[in-house]
Design goal:
The chain is mostly helical. The protein is 32% helix and 0% strand.
Length: 65
């Protein structure tokens, strides 16, 4: 999650309205909320390396996890 669009260094900001430093603590709830917001806006294209690797590949069924 980069600081160009989604968070701001040292203060709340970006599309996730959070400090980037808050992504580094043990509380994952705000990280997940931000990742979901990113996915809802642009999908997996926000993570180019993962998107290129996973594009058009079948994903396992995780519904029973």
């Amino acid at each position: 999650i980069n600081n160009k669009e989604w968070c701001k260094k040292g203060r709340k900001g970006g599309h996730c309205s959070m400090k980037c430093e808050d992504l580094l603590n043990e509380d994952l709830a705000d990280d997940v909320r931000c990742a979901k917001r990113i996915y809802d806006r642009v999908g997996f294209k926000a993570w180019p390396a993962s998107y290129a690797y996973c594009k058009e590949k079948s994903l396992p069924d995780l519904s029973k996890c």
